[in-house]
Amino acid sequence: MIHLRKQWFLIGLAVALLVGLAFAHRLTGVVDRPWIKNVIVAGVLFLSTLVLETQAIWNAVRRPGAMLLGTFVNFVMLPLFAWSLYGRLQHDLGIGLMVAAAVPCTLVSAAVWTRKAGGNAAVALMVTVVTNLICFLLTPFWIYVSTRTLTELSPVDLIAKLGLLVVLPMVLAQLLRQSHLIASWADVRGKSLSTAAQCGILFMVLIGSVGCGMELAKRAVGDELRQVDFIAMLVVVLVVHVTMFGVGFAMAGMFRMSRPDRIAVGFAGSQKTLAVGVYIASFLPGMALLPIVSYHVIQLVVDTVIAERLAAQVPGEAHETEVRRAAH
Fold this sequence. Notes:
Blueprint: H1 2-6, H2 8-22, H3 28-31, H4 34-50, H5 54-61, H6 65-85, H7 91-102, H8 109-116, H9 121-147, H10 155-176, H11 180-188, H12 190-218, H13 227-254, H14 259-270, H15 274-281, H16 289-312, H17 316-327
């Protein structure tokens, strides 16, 4: 029972997908109200950023090398690698792969997994902040250049929406944290605020899966998503994520960065956020949602194993020292 409670978010993802696909026609009223998506994604980014300690962000700025490398891997090398595999997937799934590759680093799990592995969580945190702040420019660029597909949103519209719904809430949250009273309140209720943000993501997945269900209902017999297409998508997503972790870890080693920094670059360079990806997928046709959700699930599962392996490579006392160093 305790194990199930720890995995509640993964279980929630599965339930949201199944409910959205199975009851798509009954839930179309939710999808037809764009303001709901806007409020949720802005709220998720605001709550996720409100619990980030400003001091931890500035700690990473003092030594920007690892942060810059992690950002480069996340927002340049990963989209390029995904683009090279784009044509191997069924059209809708290929578009979804590029959306997953083009969104910023996740706001929560990159720092958590980095810390568990004995890495520098401050670096992972800073990569998260930087990629989210510049995503309003680079995310539309990568999606448009690689797929030439944005049906309801032009690149200019997407830049404006991401600036308003991603960057502005993050900036506002950090400005509010400058108040000692608000910062203390957010720190005390950090777990509850993070849980609320995750619930918002689940609702966004529900909205996206309703769109998938409606698309499946429109397709002619024989044009449904084949098992081989789905399996190919899972393999490609897994390859992209694991390869980019290895690339980030190896490149940090080439630059002679410390082991904690190498771990941080590996995790932050390869992880992607679900909230922004699901939001963009809601404007795209077909099954574009599936690679985005798959990427998030795969990174949670695979990075848990990687973090445990990395932590096991260091003796207990040394691991605790690295974790304390990463926390500061």
